[in-house]
Amino acid sequence: MKTPFKTKNSLPPKTRAKAAEALNQTLANCSDLYSQTKQAHWNLRGPRFYQFHLLFDRLAGMVEEHLDTIAERVSSLGEIARGTVRDAAKNSELKEFPTEPAGDTAYLDALIDRYAVAANAARKAIDSSDAAGDKDTADLITAVSRDLDESLWLLEAHKAGH
User: How far, in Å, CA of 29 to CA of 7, rounded?
Assistant: First the structure.
């Protein structure tokens, strides 16, 4: 199995390809999640505007911090990082974000659904990377998973009592 880039990484090519597949899926999901979170941040209206505006911006920042690390890991494995907006749109497992005006609660619900999908997919990517024999990729995605779980918790905490 030939990789696009030469590397002296000792992982077998098949392992690197499998890990890159998991990473590229995580990259697509996180890129889409970042843009959807910013979409909610930009268009938010409602009685909890300020609180949610700050929260959504914080969550987008948490997701964005992982994008470069994910993509560079793909490249370090000798594979191609699939990180364009078009790649994210084509490969993301997230549903399209509502673009019509919606209140703060509707955007909160939409983000809860999408963070859950991304967090659950990250756990699958951890398992597939580990099973392929790439513990470094599994560890990298574990860090992503922790932040996604924390973000989901922060979003769901705003629904408590409703």
Answer: 27
Q: Is 77 helix (H, G, I), strand (E, B) or coil?
A: coil
Within a domain: 8 = no
147, 52 Cβ separation under 8 angstroms: no
Beta bridge partners of 45: 103
20 belongs to a structural domain: yes
Amino acid of residue 65: E
Query: Is this prediction's pTM over 0.85?
Result: yes
Whether 62 contacts 151, CB under 8 Å: yes
pLDDT digit string, tens, across residues 27-76 = 999 999 999 999 999 999 989 999 999 999 999 999 999 999 999 999 99
